[in-house]
UniProtKB/TrEMBL annotation:
NCBIfam families: PRK13057.1 (NF009604), YegS/Rv2252/BmrU family lipid kinase (TIGR00147)
SMART domains associated with the record: DAGKc
Top-level taxonomy: Bacteria, Pseudomonadati, Pseudomonadota, Alphaproteobacteria, Acetobacterales
GO molecular function: ATP binding; ATP-dependent diacylglycerol kinase activity; metal ion binding
Required cofactor(s): Mg(2+)
Entry keyword Cytoplasm: no
SUPFAM superfamilies, alphabetized: NAD kinase/diacylglycerol kinase-like
Gene3D superfamilies: 2.60.200.40, Probable inorganic polyphosphate/atp-NAD kinase, domain 1
GO biological process assignments: phospholipid biosynthetic process
Protein name: Lipid kinase
EC class (word): transferase
UniProt EC number: 2.7.1.-
Length: 322
């Protein structure tokens, strides 16, 4: 049966009153604001297919667009203003989902994800299928589950915020390359950057301690997956109420290559040159301002203050997702 907030509330009320049964009738169609990032890797080709898949799953989708001068979040806020919607569906990748966060926070509507981007890290972290029709069925039938947000200098994010190599990679990986090459684009850009990567000094201040490090990358994860195949920590979840932090303190570029299998599994903490810890708040300082990559986009600079926003949003996802 499709998820219906009104029907769920009626059932709960009847159960509390001791009713033995309740007839909720035929559930009405869900009504969703639908935003498709036409620039996402599969966005333009699947825009109409997305609406059809949602309709087949029992959801009426009303398309909205981010016109010139109007951001994705602003389009969501404007679209939701008349009322009558019970969810927002985003078709795109992690960058699009990140851009939608302010709109989702303001409207309070739960999020449905159609993974149409390059990496689709949040969808993988939540166990949402990448096949369009299957993802639409999740949005129609699963109850929304609470997920946390990370935040750095006031910028919220779903997956990971990174300083160092990953941020430099985000700066070099152009949108056209991601659209043309998909995940392979990450590897091509990374190979070109590896030999030029240099460690930098940073202070990590958390839980009453100050750690001074020489590192090539510091990553602060709220979710599980990032970067088109990497894993923050093997036990990380986007709803576990914790930030997973690691610092890659290697001094040779070839060690990064050797680390790749561990980074993919989230077991990099087994290396002596990798510092890992878990926290809910972190301050990070560098000698000079450095860009910060959040969910694949450069959004802030050091010095940085990280914090966790517990159960900040609701997302339609399988209950047994990662």
């Amino acid at each position: 049966m499709p998820w219906q907030p009104a029907a769920a509330s009626a059932v709960a009320t009847a159960q509390q009153a001791g009713a033995e049964a309740i007839d909720t009738g035929t559930p009405e169609l869900g009504r969703a604001l639908l935003f498709i990032n036409q620039k996402a890797r599969s966005g333009a080709e699947q825009a109409s297919a997305a609406a059809e898949a949602l309709a087949a799953a029992g959801i009426e989708a009303v398309p909205i667009e981010a016109s010139e001068g109007l951001s994705c979040a602003e389009a969501i806020i404007a679209g939701a203003a008349p009322g009558g919607f019970d969810r927002v569906v985003i078709g795109g990748g992690d960058g699009t989902l990140n851009a939608a966060i302010p709109g989702l926070l303001q409207t309070g509507l739960p999020l449905g994800i159609l993974p149409l981007g390059t990496a689709n890290d949040l969808a993988r972290s939540l166990g949402i299928p990448t096949e369009l029709e299957a993802a639409a069925r999740v949005i129609a039938t699963e109850a929304p589950r609470p997920v946390d947000l990370g935040e750095v200098n006031g910028h919220p994010y779903f997956n990971v915020a990174s300083i160092g190599f990953s941020a430099e990679l985000a700066a070099e990986l152009k949108a056209e390359a991601k659209k043309r090459w998909g995940r392979l684009g990450y590897g091509v850009a990374a190979l070109g950057l590896l030999r030029r990567a240099r460690p930098f000094r940073a202070e990590l201040i958390h839980d009453g301690v100050v750690e001074r490090v020489l590192t090539i990358q510091v990553s602060v994860g709220n979710g599980r997956h990032y970067g088109g195949g990497m894993t923050v920590a093997e036990e990380a979840r986007p709803d576990d109420g914790i930030l997973d932090v690691y610092s890659l303190e290697v001094t040779r570029w070839w060690k990064l290559v050797a680390l790749l299998p561990w980074l993919r599994r989230g077991t990099q903490g087994q290396w002596r040159d990798v510092r890992v810890f878990r926290t809910t708040a972190l301050e990070l300082r560098t000698r000079r301002p450095r860009p910060i990559n959040t969910d694949g986009e450069l959004t802030a600079w050091t010095p940085a203050v990280f914090r966790l926003r517990r159960a900040a949003l609701r997302v339609f996802a399988p209950p047994d997702g990662a």
